[in-house]
Amino acid sequence: MLEKKWWHNSVVYQIYPRSFYDSNNDGIGDLKGIISKLDYLRKLGIDVIWLSPVYKSPNDDNGYDISDYRDIMDEFGTMEDMDNLLSEANSRGIKILMDLVVNHTSDENIWFKNAVRDENSKYRDYYVFRKAVDGKVPNDLGSIFSGSAWELDEKSGEYYLHLFSKKQPDLNWENEDMRNEVYDMINFWLDKGVGGFRLDVIDLVGKQPDQCITGNGPKLHDYLQEMNLRSFGNKDVLTVGETWGATPEIAKLYSNPNRNELSMVFQFEHISLDEIPGKSKWDLAPLDFIKLKEVFNKWQTELSNDGWNSLFWNNHDLPRIVSRWGNDSKEYRELSSKMLATVLHMQKGTPYIYQGEEIGMTNVKFDSIEDYRDIELLNMYKERMENGYQKDDIMKSIYAKGRDNARTPMHWDGSINGGFSNVAPWIKVNPNYVDINVENNLKDSDSVFNHYKQLISIRKENDVVVYGDFKLLDRNHKSIFAYIRELNNERLFIVANFYVNNEEFILGKDIKFEGVEILLSNYKDSSEDIEKLNLRPYEAIIYKLK
Ligand code: TEU
Ligand code: CA
Q1: CB within 8 Å of 322: residues ≥ 6 apart
Q2: What is the pLDDT of residue 35?
Q3: Contact, 12 vs 353, CB < 8 A?
Q4: Which of 7, 11, 1, 5 is nearest to 345 (CA)?
Q5: What per-residue confidence (pLDDT) applies to 305?
Q6: How is domain 469-545 classified at the CATH fold level?
Q7: C-alpha separations of 371 from 228, 355, 368, 412, 429 in Å
Q8: If we measure between CA atoms, which residue out of 101, 129, 385 comes closest to residue 242?
Q9: Residue among 397, 450, 354, 395 at smallest CA distance from 19
Q10: Which of 36, 124, 351, 411 could form a disulfide linkage to 437, CB 3.0–4.6 angstroms apart?
Q11: DSSP category for residue 275
Q12: Which atom of ligand 1 is nearest to the CA of 403?
């Protein structure tokens, strides 16, 4: 039996501070802006906020390049604002997760500056410097943001490793002093009362660059057990690792409570199902829906009591789900947003909502590459232009997968810039803010916001949503996602039409029941005749079986 934890029935809301709310009209979201919106989040019913990085940073990768782990980014405010955010959130029963980016730092971090300034300083070994090989880079390792993962340090003639941008030098986890400094820093934030951490690309810290091993290196879990022991292990916090390469077997290594590593991980298997296998996220393919069900089914059933799932469609690196796998046309945007939310939130695990998802925000299409800001996308654009790709094709990839889709400012109301700021924001707003915004959502009892709110309260009121077993139904149905959740005598039947055509669903005879009650639907008049359902476009229903 799984020991119960507070984060088992929690719902997390991710804030990308730069784009959430600008309190002082300089075009950049900030901590005071977040504080002023806490009551909005309380209305939604979330328990935890995951804050994307707010530490001091030159913003080569919007804060994922940290120059000082114990200070706050100037544009976002001060440490006093941060302390206020913590106490204001805590007083509303909301915990704050910090984003822990410890695979790399900024090249403007004092550690890296020392490492470059003096080859004999102890900081040199905090990073990964290697001699040139035949006057060239040490090996073929590539950066996730295009090009080589090695950058020349002119001063010494050696190369340093950067799996992301060249302003994000990788830390060397083999170095014990460096690890100790990281643990001290984690304790600094724990002492401030944070509710936990989201660990950025944590699967990379066991890297063995000389063997070209990056993810899932041999000492990865030793480091995590050491981190747990030396920092958050004796605190009742939520820790979630970002692990792109995780399989259920690997996820159990991280999240089996007996192993004292993390509470849970983000797995990305479902997120890669619309790209050409073996190529990059930019190489687009239609979603394989049967595969999607298979992947969820695997994760829902295989962790069992030896680990815990996270549930998400969106984050600051991913396109908006309604544009991706729903339908963002005027007619179907709300219906399909609610359908996607229902399919995800009734599964077993801790759900994560990314800012704007709860009002059905969509992808954006800027005509000009000049309007984009994300380093990953801009590097890819440059590389593909140089390699002779057609500009139209590159833009198609950006529209479908670019990270800036998720990073345009939050839409608060129909006023200029969606009420995010009075001045031109750091990145343009999506022009559809006029319709899609918080104010409209709060006014309308059938809004996407209110659907999310109800999904959260169904989770809170029904243990079966939190702990029930998951059973996928009719796995080969080409349009319908249906499953049963079961705990003791409680049963829920979730059925959703993923597509725009009407679809029929026949319930298996093995499922016995005496009556049904509809807990939630995205249509007003859904049928209770569940033995044979005719689902309308994107119709999604939660039934309680009696
Ligand atoms: O993301 C890790 C990561 O691998 C992503 O950059 C991913 O490859 C890409 O966005 C989707 O293909 C984390 C952070 O979430 C991301 O924002 C950072 O840029 C990155 O780490 C470096 O810190
Ligand atoms: Ca501001």
Answers
A1: 328, 333, 336, 337, 340, 360, 361, 362
A2: 98
A3: yes
A4: 11
A5: 87
A6: Immunoglobulin-like (2.60.40)
A7: 42, 21, 6, 21, 10
A8: 101
A9: 354
A10: 411
A11: B
A12: 10
What type of residue is 490?
Answer: E
Collect residues with CB below 5 Å from ion ligand 2. Answer: 22, 24, 26, 28, 30
pLDDT of residue 1: 76
238-242/264-266 β-pairing: parallel
Token pair belonging to 355:
């800012």
Closest CA to 375 of 65, 142, 128, 150: 65
Tokens 């009209």, located at residue: 25
> The tokens of 370 are what?
């000049």
Residue owning tokens 């100790």: 180
Q: How far apart (Å, rounded) are the C-alpha atoms in residues 178 and 472?
A: 46
Q: What is the DSSP letter of 418?
A: G
- CA of 197 from ligand 2 middle (Å) equals 24
The alpha carbon of 146 and the centre of ligand 1 are apart by a number of angstroms equal to 12
Closest by CA to 316, choosing from 392, 409, 381, 393, is 409
CB 516 within 8 A of CB 526: no
Looking at residue 304, what is its pLDDT?
85
- 3 state SS of 220: helix
Residue ranges of alpha helices (H) inside 59-109 are 79-91
> Which bound ligand lies closest to the C-alpha atom of 28?
2
- Which ligand has the shortest distance to the CA of 23? 2
Active site residues: 200, 242
Dist CA 221 CA 225 (whole Å): 6
Mean pLDDT by 10-residue block, N- to C-terminus, for the chain (546 residues)?
Answer: 93 99 98 98 98 98 98 98 98 98 98 98 98 97 97 97 98 98 98 98 98 98 98 97 96 97 98 94 97 98 94 98 98 98 98 99 98 98 98 98 98 98 98 98 98 98 97 98 97 98 97 97 98 98 98
Residue closest by Cα to atom 18 of ligand 1 = 64
Name which residue sits closest to atom 1 of ligand 1, judged by CA. 201
At residue 285, the pLDDT reads: 97
Q: Give the separation between CA 399 and CA 450, rounded to whole angstroms.
A: 28
- pLDDT at position 143 is 98
Query: Backbone phi, then psi, for 99, in 5-degree steps?
Result: -85, 120
Distance 470 CA to ligand 1 centre (A): 30
What is the structure's pLDDT at 2? 86
Give residue limits of the domains in the chain.
6-101+178-372+410-450, 110-161, 469-545
Tell me if the domain spanning 6-101+178-372+410-450 has CATH number 3.40.50.720.
no
Element (H, E) at 377: helix 375-386
Taking the complete model, does pTM exceed 0.90, yes or no?
yes
3-state SS of 164-207 is: CCCCCCEECCCCHHHHHHHHHHHHHHHHCCCCEEEECCHHHCCC
Q: ipTM, 2 decimals? A: 0.97
Fold held by 110-161:
Oligo-1,6-glucosidase; domain 2 (3.90.400)
